[in-house]
Amino acid sequence: MRAIVTLLAMLFLSGCVSTAASIITAPVRAVGRVADLATTSQSESDENRGRALREREEQIGRLDRQRQRATEKCDDGDRDACSDVARIEAQIEDLQGAPTPR
Q: Distance between terminal CA atoms of the chain?
C-alpha cells in the first residue's frame, strides 16, 4: 500500500517539479535573452560593416554616373551642369574620405 501511495505521489508531483524548475530558471533565461539582444556578435558586426560598405559603393556609383551626365552637359555649354559636376565631385570625395564603418 505504501508503495502505491509513493508511486502516485511521484506521478502527481513530477509536474510540479518541472513547473517549479521552469519558474526558478525563468529570470536567468530572461537575462540571457536581454544580454543577447543588447550585444552584437562578431558575425553580425561583420555583416553590418559589409552592408554599409556596399551601400556606400553603390552611392558612389550613382554619383559617378550623375557626374558623367553632368560633365557631358557641361561640355555642351550648360553652366549649371558645370556647377553640378563640382558639387557631385565634392560629394564623392566626402564619401571616399569617410571613415570605414565598424
A: 70
Span 20-31, pLDDT tens digits: 667 777 777 777
Residue closest to 96 by CA, chosen among 60, 50, 55, 46: 60
> Mean of the per-residue pLDDT values for the chain?
81
Distance CA 65, CA 47 (A): 27
Distance CA 73, CA 67 (A): 10
Spatial separation of the C-alpha atoms in residues 86 and 94, rounded to whole Å = 12
31 is written with which cell numbers? 537575462
Give the residue carrying C-alpha cell 561640355: 75
